[in-house]
Each structure stands twice: as C-alpha cells, then as structure tokens.
Specification:
The complex is a heterodimer of chains A (404) and B (246). Chain A has 404 residues and is α+β, with helices and mostly antiparallel strands. Chain A contains 14 helices and eleven strands. Chain A has two domains: 2-26 and 262-403, no CATH class; 43-250, no CATH class. Chain A has helices at residues 2-33, 51-59, 95-98, 104-107, 142-148, 195-202, 228-231, 234-247, 256-299, 301-309, 314-335, 337-355, 366-392, 396-403, and strands at 38-41, 64-79, 86-93, 137-141, 155-159, 166-175, 190-194, 206-209, 212-215, 221-226, 252-255. In chain A, helix 1 (2-33) runs antiparallel to helix 13 (366-392) and helix 10 packs across helix 14 (396-403). The longest helix of chain A is centred in the last third of the chain and has 44 residues, at 256-299. The model of chain A has no long low-confidence stretch (mean pLDDT 87). Chain B is an alpha/beta fold and 246 residues long. Chain B has a domain at 107-175. Chain B has eight helices and ten strands. Chain B has helices at 3-12, 60-67, 90-99, 116-126, 131-144, 160-171, 190-207, 218-222; strands at 16-29, 32-45, 49-53, 75-80, 83-84, 101-104, 178-182, 210-214, 226-231, 234-238. Chain B is globular. Classes of the chains: A alpha+beta (404), B alpha/beta (246). At the A-B interface, helix 10 and helix 14 of A face helix 3, strand 6 and helix 4 of B.
Chain lengths: 404, 246
C-alpha cells in the first residue's frame, strides 16, 4: 500500500515534469525554427500607427530580408443569409509579405494555390489612403469549414459586431489552424483576410475628426526577417535591435533571444504549477511512509526495547528503521517510473486533445528521471528519519513493559 | 573489565561484581510518588548464582533493570566491577549491556523474522565480531543449549523451552560475566522450567558466570545458592550461600 502510494507520487511527479519539459522544449523549438528574427510592437495601447509605411521603411534597411505587418481582431461571422453568428480570431495579413515568414511546417497547413490561398498577394485596398478596391478574400480554418459546411468559392458574412454591418467575403481557401479547442468545450475559429480590409472593417484605417480625416493605419506588430549573415550572429541582431530602439523609442523591439528568455520565465510558472501538483502527491506518499513506519515501530516496540536492552546501539536502531523505510521509498520510486512514463504520454495526449494541437508536448529525459528519482529518495530519507529517530529514542523499560 | 584482568582476579579471590549503595528509585504515577527501591544496599560477588524474590511491586524488576544498566537510580550508587555506572553516558552503558551483561526475559523476545542461528548471532554482529568467529561461537552456543540441529528454525517453529534456550544462547553471545534473568521460567511448564534452571546452573558452575534470577517461583529460588527477598523496595531477607547445594 505504501509502496503504491510512493509509486503513484513518483509517477505523477514524473508525468508533470515530462509534460512541463515537453511544453518548454516545444515552445523553444518553435521560436528557434521561426523565421521572424525581430518583432516590433507596443506594450499597451491600440497598436502601431502607420504600419504600411513602417514596413516599407524597414524593408529598406540593409540588415532586413523581409518585413510583414499584422493585426488581429475578433470578428463575427455567419453563413450567408443566416441569423446565427459566431466569432473568429481573424488575422489581417499581406499574403506576399507573410509567405517568406512561414516555416515549411507552417506553410504545409495552408493551400498551395496563389498566395497560400489568396489570389491577391498584395494589399490593393490600402491603395490611396484605403480607397483601393476590396478583394473580399478570406481564408477560413477547418473548424469554420466544418461548422458552416463551407468550401472554397462559397461566401461568408463577416462583421465587426454581432449586429453587423456584415460584408460578404469569398472563401479563397481552407487552412488548418491545428487548434480545435475541443477539450475546453468552446470551439476555436480562425480566419485570415487582407490587412487593409480588416483595418477598414474595424475602423483602424482612418480616423474621422470633425470634417477632416486622418489615416492611422494601425497594426499590432511588425515581423522582421534578417539577412542570413545577420540572423546567425547574436551580436549583429542585438546591434540592429539597438538601432531600431533608437529609431522607434515608443515601440518594443523583441529578438528571438528575448522571446526565449520570456518563454523560459513563463514556463517557470507553469513548471511551478505542475511541480506543486506533483509535490502535493509526493508529500502524501511520504506521509504514508512516515505513518507506516510509525505503525511498524509501534508494533515492534517490545523488539526495539529488547534490542536496546541487549546492547544494540541507538545508531543501529536508527539505521535499521531508516533502511527499512528507504527500501519502501526506493521500491516505490522505481515502480513509479513506468506509470510515470505512460502517464506523461497520456497527459500530453489530453492537453493535445484539449487545445487540438498536433505538436509533441512531452519530453522524457533520462537525466531528469534520474534526478527526480534521487530527489524522491532524498526526501524519503529525510522523512524516514522521523520514525527512525522515534524508534531510537524509545525508553527501554517502557518498551519492554508494553510488550508484557 | 573483561577476560584477562577479571578472570585472573576471579581465580585468586571472589571480587565484588555488583555493588548497590543506598539505591532508591522513585516513580511519579499521576500525583503520587511510588518508591520502587528504598535505600537498598546489595553486594554481589563474581560467580554467584542468586535469585531475587518478593511479591509483585516489591521492586524486583526495578532492581534487575538498574543492575542491567537500563534504568538509573534516583539516589544512591551502582557500581559494576568497581565503576560507578550512573556516571556513564548512554553509549557506554549500551556497550556494557552488549559485552558484559546477558539478558534473559520471561517472554524470550526472539525476533520472529530471524532463525535461531540469526537470533543468537545478533549481539555478535552489533559487537563487530568477525564472520568466522561469529559462526563458530554461534554454533557452539546452540550446541551448548542443545539446539544445534534447530539452528535454521524460526521462533514460531520452536517450543517455549527451546525458545528460552535460544534466548539463553543469545544472552551468552558476547561472553558476558553477568546474566540477568527476569522470570525466565514464567511462561514454561515445570519440567521445562527446571531444565532451563539447570542450564543456568551449568553456566554458573562451568563458566563462572554470575547469574541473577528474578522469580516468583520458590522451586527456582531453591536451586540458587543465595536468595534475596524484597519487600516495598527494601531487602527483607538475604540467605547465606547454601554449601549443601554445591
């Protein structure tokens, strides 16, 4: 029973650790694989003004290979003629500027025709201060496709609010967001439209002030890809970052390295949460060990009394109880490794089904297993000292009398 | 205290092995103070075979525990082989119990998960006796108590008398000079009890080991050469050695 309790603790702790490490590694891999070397954004507020101009300026920098601008909004959508609307996370992009930024794995999730589905690669509606023609092109994800039964060439209504006004868009293609949200009970929907059309839909294009109007061209972020000889040299990336910070003091410039550091900081919190769950389980396991050893020495009070009476030292009694306790801890910890392995796979599968991702979210490192094993044993040794100390300190006469 | 020094002296003249001077032991039970021993004086010379008798609560077991260094007197002085044991630290007292005193209990107190052999060997392991000597001595002791062929048996496979003989062998493991037996025949039938007493007498006679037996049984007491009677924690009778029993 006690061995099972320790094994369960070990298994839970191991699963948590493997998933935590898997999540961190996955996030790190994604950042490292990303073609975005520098991101520019704002900490607070409603975005960067003059997004298109900024992008064109950055593209002229000798360090820059490509730059893309984005804005993300939560837009209502519904089937043509339907009254029932849903909401989708909608990304406004300039397709031909976004294409080079996608990794091969990301590109696989989009249609191959045109500009991964869009017929128009540029941003014609941006034209002359947002007076150019609309493309009415939209890429929908598989979740919208299955929810509304839409296919390429069909039409969909998209609006800024639930009550509209709605504009009819043409489905240019379907992509796989890899996020279903199935496990959290709320389906996640994603769409992508031309940036300037999203800006116009949401009022982030032009601000009317009395009789005059001003182009604001608000975007959320700018993604910058650097030339190969720059992006592989951390100091050159840092130099360019400093240059951008000097040029745009109100913007936040983030390198890959910054993202990795921030990711690790965020994962520390996740790790802490996971380890807290495992830790509580471990404490319960250790409590079992302590209790069972206390019961054992209680049952063997007369034996311990006799041993002390015939000259067995306190040290020997202490070591004997400690050794017995450690056998339970070591066996339990060892037995917990295999269920811990399968538990971590199950946990990762559960997370994957919850958010619908297909990425690998579990990392089972032998070194971590060994480290955890040693930690559990050390903790077991520490808690085992309590009953061992109790046994060693028993009064000989009382112990013998108890037996009588 | 061991071997050369003591045995040489023992041959020359009977030396005092245990000396209790004005020993008192008081316990607190609730609000009342119980006097287990009251200014008790007692001298035991090496090679004696004595019994301690008295009604329940007279202080017999307390006396044995104090001589056995598992209890301390409240007042008075306890000397074993000339050393005042009340001044010794726990580790030193443990060492004395291990190497110089052999305990025999009424309930035998054998470890049920160990064989007869392992039970006898246990104190030798604690005393760091080498493996070869340990084996030789253990088998010798089992033979001495007539259980050599029962060495692989566990306590629950042995009769009461056999278990007590294993306990005697265990008490002899580290060649003690003093054996303290607390009602060793209390759980045995008369015939077996007498065999056990006979074994203790043999040890006393042949090996010169001092034996102190606490007993309620007058037949057991009759087999010893000196009988100390206790009442209310004080010696009320101390018969002289019976030469006729030699």
């Amino acid at each position: 029973m006690t061995i099972i309790a320790v094994a369960t603790s070990m298994a839970l702790l191991l699963s948590m650790q493997a998933i935590s490490e898997g999540l961190l590694q996955n996030a790190k891999d994604n950042i490292e694989k990303s073609k975005v070397d520098i991101g520019i954004g704002v900490g607070e507020g409603n975005g960067i003004e003059g997004g298109h101009t900024l992008m064109e300026t950055l593209k002229k920098d000798p360090e820059v290979r490509y730059a893309g601008i984005y804005r993300t909004e939560y837009l209502a959508f519904k089937k043509l003629g339907s009254n029932k609307q849903s909401w989708a996370i909608t990304e406004g992009i300039i397709p031909k500027e976004t294409m080079p930024i996608l990794t091969p794995d990301e590109a696989k999730r989009f249609p191959k025709e045109g500009y991964f589905g869009f017929k128009e690669g540029g941003d014609p509606h941006y034209g002359n201060n947002f007076t150019g023609p609309w493309t009415y092109e939209v890429l929908i994800d598989k979740n919208i496709q299955s929810a509304l039964g839409l296919n390429k060439g069909d039409q969909i209504e998209i609006g800024r609010t639930a009550t509209g006004p709605y504009i009819t868009f043409n489905v240019s293609g379907v992509f796989d967001s890899q996020l279903t949200g199935a496990g959290i009970g709320a389906k996640l929907f994603f769409m992508s439209i031309h940036l300037s059309e999203l800006q116009s839909l949401t009022g982030n294009d032009v601000i009317k002030e009395g009789n005059t109007s001003r182009v604001v061209d608000k975007v959320d972020s700018v993604s910058v890809g650097l030339l190969p000889d720059i992006r592989t040299d951390v100091s050159k990336v840092e130099d360019y970052k400093k240059k951008l910070e000097a040029r745009y003091p109100f913007y936040i410039v983030v390198t890959k390295n910054d993202r990795l550091i921030r990711m690790e900081q965020q994962m520390t919190i996740v790790n802490g949460f996971f380890l807290a769950i495992g830790g509580v389980s471990l404490m319960i396991g250790m409590l079992f060990v302590t209790c069972i050893m206390f019961m054992s020495i209680l049952e063997r009070t007369n034996e311990i009394g006799m041993l002390r009476a015939i000259g067995v030292s306190k040290r020997t009694i202490f070591l004997q109880i400690l050794a017995e306790s450690m056998v339970i801890v070591v066996l339990g910890a060892a037995l917990g490794i295999i269920p811990g392995y399968f538990g971590s796979l199950w946990g990762a599968a559960y997370i994957k089904s919850t958010i619908g991702t297909s990425e690998t979210l579990v990392l089972f490192k032998l070194r971590s297993v060994g480290q955890l094993f040693v930690e559990v044993i050390l903790l077991g040794g520490l808690v085992s000292m309590i009953p061992a100390w109790r046994a060693m300190s028993m009064d000989i006469i009382k112990s013998l009398k108890r037996a009588k | 205290m061991k071997e050369g020094k003591s045995k040489g002296k023992a041959k020359a003249a009977k030396e005092v092995l245990v000396e209790l001077t004005k020993v008192s032991k008081r316990y607190k039970m609730g609000d009342t103070i119980v006097k287990a021993l009251d200014k008790l004086d007692l001298t035991i010379t090496e090679g004696e075979m004595m019994s301690v008798m008295g009604p329940s609560g007279s202080g017999k077991s307390t006396l044995l525990n104090i001589i056995g260094c598992i209890d301390n007197p409240t007042d008075g002085r306890v000397c074993i082989d000339g050393r005042d044991v009340s001044e010794l630290k726990d580790a030193e007292l443990t060492r004395i119990r291990l190497t110089e005193i052999g305990f025999i209990f009424q309930q035998f107190y054998l470890i049920p998960t160990l064989t007869a052999y392992e039970n006898v060997e246990l104190p030798m392991r604690e005393a760091r006796v080498g493996a070869d000597e340990r084996r030789e001595r253990t088998l010798g002791l089992l033979e001495l108590v007539g259980l050599k062929d029962r060495d692989k048996h566990y306590p629950n496979q042995l009769s009461g008398g056999e278990q007590q003989r294993v306990a005697i062998a265990r008490a002899l493991a580290n060649n003690p000079r003093l054996i303290l037996a607390d009602e060793p025949t209390g759980e045995l039938d008369t015939k077996t009890a007498m065999r056990i007493i006979e074994l203790l007498k043999e040890l006393n006679r042949n090996k010169g080991i001092t034996v102190i037996i606490v007993t309620h049984d007058p037949r057991v007491a009759n087999e010893t050469r000196r009988v100390v009677s206790l009442q209310d924690g004080a010696v009320v009778g101390d018969t002289p050695p019976l030469a006729a029993k030699e």
